Amino acid sequence: MKKYFGTDGIRGEVNKGNITGEMFFKFGLAAGTYFSNKNKQRHKAIIAKDTRLSGYMLEPALVSGLISSGMDVLLLGPLPTNALAMLTKSMKSDLGIMLTASHNIHTDNGLKLFGPDGMKLSDNVEKKIEKLIDGKVQKYLLKPNLIGRAKRIEDATERYTEVLKNFFPRSFNLSGIKIFLDCANGASYKSAPALLRELGAEVVAIGINPDGFNINKDCGSTHPELIQRSVKEHKADIGIAFDGDADRVIMCDEKGDLIDGDQIVAMIAKHWKKKKILKGGVVGTLMTNFGLENYFKNNNIKFYRANVGDRYVKEKMNSLKYNLGGEQSGHIILGNFATTGDGLLVSLEVLNALKNNGKASKLFSVFKKVPQVLENIKVKDKKIVDKKTIKQKIEKINKGLKREGRLLVRKSGTENIVRIMVESSNQKLIKDTLLEVKKVIFN
């Protein structure tokens, strides 16, 4: 059991618990110590962030810890998470750190750590860093002549967008496509509109005026109703919404119908299979819609369910040698190009297909979804679902569904929330199952 790291890094409310300047100094010192070896070679970390006001507080503390461990630090400013992952690898850094709380509101913040390969750290490495965090700080502090330096990099956004453009042919352009874009007042507010316009698209953009407080506030991938309504008002061909650090993307077609991560994965899988570039199969999660699993089965595409979290999706993609995976929430990993979810990269892949296949509503008509209901239940202690008696009762309910439905109960990795998902073509069965599970949790 990990003490600080959840399913996707460290996250929480600012100036409480782990999200303080004092703790981020320790995180920086511990991570820097772990990734530095004992030879005389200089070691380097790069840091990017989203647009939260608290980034100005936590970034200096993190830098101080890293420099105290002997690491040099490059500060990239606001960038999407996968931009940080890509640049960690291309800039030959020992460590990449993304300051973000992803889709959470501005009162939260956190961090995600990436190794020199651009991959999120494994559970094993996170546990080793946790031991260092809880060690005696004084013994990790280096002598004054061995501490690191910090420098700000001004062209990080341009470096990232140049990498993305190089994934596509030189002839690739988006002329004739109108996009309604929501950047969630987050990390993609500069890169996404600039790149899409540079490629020739007509872009109507919102969520591009961050003020430190408005990240994810009534906008972005957690509020897709904005793009659903606006895509029709502006007569756009497609709506695209990112979350705060732009590792998620949710879309809608020209009619305003929602397109979630499962539907995007299905479309890309179909497209890649036709082009003969789909390797092995597709990795989804325990949340992946059963209708998508059936589609893959009927079309001879191998499918594997990993634990929820794009880190686990990528780990399974690597072990199976698959090059496509994703989550219903919009974390989608294009394994030929990226090590984690990248909303802008996925959007480019979708727009490339859209340019050659007419309307978005037609492009995404790939499979029929099985009705699925997800409820997030606030609890005093999310570990309640780990109790043996509770687990046994939930398993009994699940078995009772037989082939008529599917039940998944799991705790949030970052909040005191229990997530209940019920999937079935029988609406009464969904309703009854939700009530039964809630009785088990609260009684």
Describe this protein's structure.
The protein is built from 14 helices and 18 strands. The model has no long low-confidence stretch (mean pLDDT 93). It is 36% helix and 21% strand.
Task: Provide tags for this entry.
six-stranded mixed β-sheet, 443 residues, 14 helices, five-stranded mixed β-sheet, alpha/beta
**How large, in whole angstroms, is the Cα Rg?**
22 Å
Strand content: 15-25%
Largest sheet: 6 strands, mixed
- The number of distinct β-strands equals 18
List the total number of helices: 14
Task: List the strand order in the largest sheet.
Answer: 1-5-4-2-3-6
Poorly predicted runs of 5 or more residues:
none
Mean of residue pLDDT values: 93
Share of helical residues: 25-40%
State the separation between the terminal residues, measured CA to CA.
27 Å
**How does the helix and strand content classify structurally?**
alpha/beta
From the spread of the alpha carbons, the general shape counts as globular
Q: What would you say about this model in short?
A:
With 443 residues, the protein is an alpha/beta fold. It is built from 14 helices and 18 strands.
Provide the fold topology.
Layout: E1 10-13, H1 21-35, E2 43-49, H2 55-68, E3 71-78, H3 81-90, E4 95-99, E5 108-114, H4 123-133, E6 150-152, H5 156-165, E7 178-182, H6 191-198, E8 202-206, H7 225-233, E9 238-242, E10 249-252, E11 258-259, H8 261-275, E12 281-285, H9 290-298, E13 302-306, H10 310-320, E14 324-326, E15 332-334, H11 343-355, H12 360-363, E16 372-378, H13 388-401, E17 405-411, E18 417-424, H14 427-442
Parallel strand pairs: 2-3, 2-4, 3-6, 7-8, 7-9, 12-13, 12-14
Antiparallel strand pairs: 1-5, 4-5, 9-10, 10-11, 14-15, 16-18, 17-18
